Structure of DUF4974 domain-containing protein:
Amino acid sequence: MKGFFKNYLENKCSESEFLAFINMFLKAEKQTELGQSMQEHWKEMPLELEAPDLSPTLHKIHFEINNREPGGKQSNRLITYLTRIAAVLFIPLTIAFFLNIRKEPLMEGTQTISTPLASKTNFTLSDGSVVYLNAGSSLSFPKSFSGDKRLVKLDGEAYFDVAQGKRPFEVETSSLTVDVYGTAFNVMAYNNALPEVTLERGKVAVTSKTGEQKFLNPGEQARIDTISHSIAVNTVETNLFTSWINNKLIFKNEPLGDVIQRLERWYNISIDIQDELLAQKRLNATIEYESVSEVMDLLEITLPLKFEYNKNERKLVIKNNEP
């Protein structure tokens, strides 16, 4: 394995070694070994940086390899296709990830980490707090915390496992702030969705832009109305909203319209539902490493719909298939 990786990076591997190397991306049991090889290569590079956690990059590559065109038929030439995809994606993605890990500061003392669609990452802040950053999101934070609070600014979705400290931890988004004293919670604040804060353990205070404030206990979720800025608190199954950090999407009796929003970010693809009644249909499903084709095949079986794929626009169109 280590030889495959080194030879691939140096463009010295034979065709059989190259195919064997690419095929390893499909085997879950090889992901740890692959990550270790990438970290060893990182340490050999002339950079005074800590070896990064490359599991998010491996997950991204896995998605791209499995993300075959919707509607396409399985072929005996799958490995040839994987070879072409990996040759294009692997080195650019790895380089891009390394550059992102460097966290170049936007201004002195402040840095931002961003994730593209269909990818995610995790990292540790200077106070020991762990952050998981979901697809299409960014987090800005100081290189080291000072002052009377630990403030970070979020655009998108992140899961925080906050280290306890004398100074409160605060997450700020465009629609709310979350004050924390040592806890684990998820914040979802994409522009096209109602903001949500889901508490797994500990205690947090959620404040809207109008100043309304609600305290959450474990197992509760705050949802903010973006028009009135009012806060509604409900009891939820937290794993439905935090499973993405374990590379899973879990849907339980969720409207198809909401499911589609998450799938668009998960697969970096545009999806258009042409029937509003269909968008209200409820769905139960768990998605892990399935390709977008496999997900759409599942939806066709479980719901009265059919889909068409526009390859040029990379867009799925979902239509009602009821008689």
The radius of gyration is 21 Å. Residues 46-52, 73-107 have pLDDT under 50 and may be disordered. Residues 2-101 form one domain.
